[in-house]
Amino acid sequence: MYRFLLSRQWVIITLVALLLVPTMIRLGIWQMDRYHERSARNQLVTDALAAKPVPVEELAAPGQAVTRAERYRTVTATGRFDTEAEVVVRRRTNADDRVGFHVLTPFVLKDGRIVLVNRGWVPGASQTEYPEVPAPPRGEVTIKGRLMPDETTEASGIKNLQGLPERQIMLINSEQQARRLDAPVLGGYIAQTAPEPRGGSPELLGDPGKENAPLNFAYALQWWLFAAAVPVGWFVLVRREARQRAASAAGAENADGTEDAQPAAV
Q1: How many whole angstroms separate alpha carbon 90 and alpha carbon 87?
Q2: Principal localization (predicted)?
Q3: What SS3 class is residue 74?
Q4: Collapsing DSSP states into helix, strand and coil, what is residue 259?
Q5: Model-level pTM greater than 0.85?
Q6: Beta strand 168-169 pairing with 87-93
Q7: What's the alpha-carbon Rg for the chain, to the nearest Å?
Q8: pLDDT in tens, 69-104
Q9: What are the domain boundaries of the chain?
Q10: Cβ atoms of 108 and 80 closer than 8 Å
Q11: Residue of 69 and 256 predicted with greater confidence
Q12: Which helix (H) or strand (E) holds 20?
């Protein structure tokens, strides 16, 4: 009854099924790995935001990269804004996906070192002209914000274009700004969260978004269900083929028996 499994068609179907099962299992494992990676990153964000604020000098230093565990940590800094050395970062969007600029202002600490502060987003009708940027508070002030790592082309995908209009940059990078300012600049930068600017401009950056880890978990389960469905589907097809062949064979035998039973013509 099952000799048809040795036919070319069924050998191919069986081989494809045998190939699909481990492939789908492996895809499910990959999605589960992605789920754990994203969950771990989300937990780092949660822990960083919940941690007690510390002075930025405790976590950052010139030439020192901001680690994954330090990213999004709330830090404070006391000093003054140096608006004469202020620049804007091109092609940045706000919460409404409007394209404009981020305002990057050097913040001079009490010991003379500098930390870069992203004061937020401002609109810009033209990418060739310097936008209107509200001034920060004058004199000594204490700010609070999230510690962020330096931006690089490799990590962000943003090309560091050359020949830009004056006081415009593409990436927030402490090493590049240290060369421009010819001064010691702490690694990374602060995304300011307080005090809020007068008039709401620049627009402060929103809370960091979390990755959709449950989606990867759902994909993993989906792949594993597909893997389980393949042998079930193969079995159903085999049984249906066997029944059809058995029915065809029975029909042929009945037809032969009927012909044998007919009386001979007179």
Answers
A1: 10
A2: membrane
A3: strand
A4: helix
A5: no
A6: parallel
A7: 33
A8: 899 999 999 999 999 999 999 999 998 889 999 999
A9: 1-50, 53-200
A10: yes
A11: 69
A12: helix 8-50
